[in-house]
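<context>
A single protein, sequence plus fold
<sample>
Here is the protein in question:
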Amino acid sequence: MWEYTDKVKDHFLNPRNVGVIENADAVGEVGSIACGDALTLYLKLDDNKRIVDAKFQTFGCASAIASSSALTEILKGKTLEEARDISNDNIADFLGGLPKEKMHCSVMGQDALKKAISCYLGEEAKAIEGEIVCECFGVTDVQIRHAVNDNHLDTIEDVTNYLKAGGGCGQCHERIQEIIDVTLGRVPTETKRPRLTNLQKIRLIEETLEQDIKPALKLDGGDLELIDVDGNRVMVRLRGACASCGKSQMTLKNHVESKLRQNVSPELVVEEVTR
């Protein structure tokens, strides 16, 4: 389980400004139910372009609901120009902080606000800028570069936490790492990782599971068991709380597979064995 501040819990259990503004002056929609998170933000402005009302509808987790609720509270009374300067960090700070794994919820709020402002100004929806890197969540290389620069991200896991990119099938991990390295000005090394024998690979997988992965899972009452290694396929069985968690596949990709690719081989693919 993630640690949530009292303010996050309050805005989740008692969300402010839930609903729809009829004849809203601005509407911003982001995400999709298919991807797990979606937010629609409604704004009403006065003649001086000051936000007099803000409401939202959100489909998502506790952090998504809390972030949306916080955003509407922050926006009330702000001019349009002041609203432009609101960042995802402002939303997270208002809530007393968010777990790093949930920062994408505050980013979703910032994106909805940008779309709502564009709607009010009558700006046409921008064409997708850059190339799609993460097909699962439709995230582009431009979005990843901006996130790395603006939020000082350093790893694939950081990018997933902020944008969800890489949180699905994992096929884009190598490309995300390339973007991170180029954005941070890292000099690519010419030294390749030495080829591992099957025995060396299995031992390194076991070591990574025991030292870097299982301790974090056990903190939340979960665990996993290594079942088999077939080439680059790592088969595991989830135990404890992980076995019944609705986010188990995301845990396998974001945490287990990501860490094994980092420590052992970028070609590894983690698969769950249920029997």
